[in-house]
Automatic annotation (TrEMBL), chain A:
Gene3D superfamilies per record: MetI-like
Organism, scientific name: Marinovum algicola
One GO CC term, this protein: plasma membrane
Ranges annotated as spanning the membrane: 25-46, 90-112, 124-148, 154-177, 198-223, 259-277
Lineage of the species this protein comes from: Bacteria, Pseudomonadati, Pseudomonadota, Alphaproteobacteria, Rhodobacterales
PANTHER family per UniProt: INNER MEMBRANE ABC TRANSPORTER PERMEASE PROTEIN YCJP, MALTOSE TRANSPORT SYSTEM PERMEASE-RELATED
Keywords: Cell membrane, Membrane, Sugar transport, Transmembrane, Transmembrane helix, Transport
UniProt name for this protein: Multiple sugar transport system permease protein
InterPro entries in UniProt: BP-dep_ABC_trans_perm (IPR050901), MetI-like (IPR000515), MetI-like_sf (IPR035906)
From TrEMBL, chain B:
Alphabetic keyword roster: ATP-binding, Nucleotide-binding, Transport
Pfam families reported in the protein's UniProt record: ABC_tran, OB_MalK
Family classification: Belongs to the ABC transporter superfamily.
Identification of the protein by name: Carbohydrate ABC transporter ATP-binding protein, CUT1 family
Organism: Marinovum algicola
SUPFAM superfamilies: MOP-like, P-loop containing nucleoside triphosphate hydrolases
Length: 292, 355
């Protein structure tokens, strides 16, 4: 009996296997397409940065230049103007990151561990600041920054980005701290820690993945910001990288190789940062992995 | 080694009163177990001694000092938590050394103490590991080590064994007992497990709804319960507690009557709650001369060395015991002997013991 049934079963198994392979192939094809769409602009940016301007729009388009042409990089790296864009971006990015981590963590510690009058309203208020479209705030911010005498200074940018980054830092860090059981606080209190000691010595080491992913986000926010940087600064030596890149359009004609070389240089910190910490960022987003 | 005096301790959470005036006096070196169902206030009491909860009323004294206003680290206590609360980012060594480091003790002294305690608890090979790489029992020992290195006046244990499996719990229970014999510290130990309470305690405090139900030695609590609650809470399987009617010759339970002596204060016709432990209900054949009743046996639980015999008496489901080798059939009536000399009588209204 079983002899008769077997061939039919075998055919069915083969069919199923074939279907499974097709499905796999389709999934891979879709993934490859999406990856190509995502990666192409980056490849094109690198490609253009390595071609002389005359070759940029040559037909048919070539991804690999005929000869590697490093002039764009040489120009951008030696020009003090571009160096100042980079330095400004680093100063602003690092300052915003450091300040928003310190202030955000302290605020989050308060929200997470203490009940006080108006704590829920305050927390809600922090979250709602994230809901306002930033562009509507441009004019008011301009007024405030001018009023404070911070127009066309890096401090003006730092302060502005801080107001964007802080709510995010507070909410993120609050989330991480909430996943850490209060028993740690109590054990540390009995061991002789002050409340601040509890935060610094016990909670922060546990919340490290959260701190890192918050820091990366904050840095990227400041590094990539364009609109406010354009509106709140005027002089060349206060500009940041995104504004610097945009200015190459009008002022120097269209030097595609320089523009793209600078874009590559501007993207590098972001790429490197992400590669170094993507483990934490991904782990951090699915918080709750912290457990005694 | 210090005495602990808890006087008229009150805890309010807003309008809700969690503790209604607790009085406990613990002698130096005594092992005191607070036991009761969840929500009875035992953990709250412990946390107030530790300084983790504010004191709404009353007084706590450790040694000669009233500690109401002192911070936890000033109270001379160390605490072991239910889920250990080991610092995940620190090694076992640093977990144990942390409190000493905070008190700015010289490094060589810290090292000496940590290694000595690690030796006692057999943690020496694990000192460089992180808590994540330890088993449940090892974490439990580190948590105890962290408390011991501080050489505190008082140890506080908050349900330390409830996260362990049954076998490990038995081992750790013995280890805690041995540790107490060796260190002779005063201990307050909170648990909901009456076996832990019986085996570990010098003094058991049974709590219920924020009040002390009864306190005393394990013997006194087990053999001389003051209330229905205490009688039913201690012992496994629990004491049989049944509503009875007093008759001139004994008790009437549903349709059956049992001849026995009743306390002098009880008149015939009075209602009474009679308590009798499963141990005191045995097959009649083993117990000549005792009050017997033939009852339908509806379930038998084999525990190995003994069997639990479930039977019905009137409205009540009751449990008796036989040896593990006695052959009993479920569903058949069987004569059981009741050792009424060890029966307890309680007032059904006040639930207090009638002696």
């Amino acid at each position: 009996m079983s002899d008769i049934v077997q061939p039919a079963q075998a055919t069915q198994a083969v069919n199923e296997e074939r279907r499974r392979r097709w499905r796999q192939a389709a999934i891979y094809a879709a993934l490859a397409l999406v990856t190509f769409v995502m990666v192409f602009p980056i490849l094109w940016m690198i490609s253009v940065s390595l071609k002389p301007t005359t070759e940029t729009f040559s037909l048919p388009p070539r991804l690999l230049p005929e000869t590697f042409h490093w002039d764009g990089y040489a120009k951008v790296l030696t020009d003090p103007k571009f160096r100042s864009f980079l330095i400004n971006s680093y100063v602003v990015g690092l300052a915003v990151t450091a300040l928003s981590l310190v202030i955000g963590t302290l605020a989050a510690f308060g929200f997470s561990r203490y009940r006080f009058f108006g704590d829920r309203v305050a927390k809600l208020f922090v979250i709602t600041t994230q809901m306002v479209p930033t562009i509507t705030l441009l004019i008011p911010y301009f007024g405030v920054i001018v009023f404070l005498g911070l127009y066309d200074t890096l401090w003006g940018l730092i302060l502005t980005y801080l107001t964007f980054a802080l709510p995010y830092s507070i909410v993120m860090m609050n989330g991480y701290l909430d996943t850490i059981p209060k028993d740690f606080d109590e054990a540390a209190t009995i061991d002789g820690c002050t409340p601040l000691g509890v935060l610094v010595r016990v909670l922060l080491p546990v919340a490290l993945p959260g701190i890192i992913s918050t820091a990366v986000y904050t840095f990227l926010l400041a590094w990539n910001e364009f609109l406010f940087a354009l509106a709140l600064t005027r002089s060349m030596d206060m500009r940041t990288v995104p504004v610097g890149i945009s200015m190459m359009v009008g002022e120097f004609g269209l030097k595609w190789d320089e523009m793209m070389a600078f874009s590559v240089i501007g993207s590098l910190p972001v790429l490197i940062l992400f590669m170094l910490v993507q483990r934490f960022v991904v782990g951090g987003l699915s918080a709750g992995g912290v457990k005694g | 080694m210090s005495r602990i005096e808890i006087r008229n301790l009150v805890k309010m959470y807003g309008a809700h009163q969690a503790l209604h005036g607790i009085d406990i006096s613990i002698q130096p070196g005594e092992f005191c177990v607070l036991v009761g169902p969840s929500g009875c206030g035992k953990s709250t009491t412990l946390r107030m001694v530790a300084g983790l909860e504010t004191i709404s009323g009353g007084e706590i004294a450790i040694g000669e000092r009233v500690v109401n206003g002192l911070r936890p680290k000033e109270r001379g206590i160390a605490m072991v938590f239910q889920n250990y609360a080991l610092y995940p980012a620190k090694t076992v060594y640093n977990n144990m050394a942390f409190s000493l480091q905070l008190s700015r003790m010289p490094k060589p002294e810290i090292d000496r103490r940590v290694r000595e305690v690690a030796d006692i608890l057999e943690l020496t090979p694990l000192l460089e590991r992180k808590p994540g790489a330890l088993s449940g029992g090892q974490r439990q020992r580190v948590a105890m080590g962290r408390a011991i290195v501080r050489d505190p006046e008082v140890f506080l244990f908050d349900e330390p064994l409830s996260n362990l499996d049954a076998k490990l719990r038995g081992q750790m229970r013995a280890e805690i007992k041995r540790l107490h014999q060796r260190l002779q510290n005063t201990i307050i130990y909170v648990t909901h497990d009456q076996v832990e309470a019986m085996t570990l305690a010098d003094r058991i405090v049974i709590m219920r709804d924020g009040k002390i139900e009864q306190q005393g030695t394990p013997d006194a609590i087990f053999h001389d319960p003051d209330t229905v609650f205490v009688a039913g809470f201690m012992g496994s399987p629990p004491m049989n507690l049944v509503d009875c009617m007093v008759t001139p010759t004994g008790l009437k339970l549903g349709d059956s009557e049992i001849a026995c002596a009743t306390p002098d204060g009880l008149r015939a016709g009075a209602r009474v709650i009679c308590g009798i432990r499963p141990d005191d209900i045995r097959p009649a054949a083993d117990q000549p001369g005792r009050a017997t009743a033939t009852v339908p046996v509806d379930l038998i639980e084999q525990l190995g060395t003994e069997k639990l015999v479930h039977f019905r008496a009137g409205q009540h489901s009751m449990i008796g015991k036989t040896g593990g080798r006695v052959d009993l059939a479920e569903g058949a009536p069987h004569p059981l002997a009741f050792d009424m000399a060890h029966a307890y009588f309680f007032d059904p209204d006040t639930e207090r013991r009638i002696r």
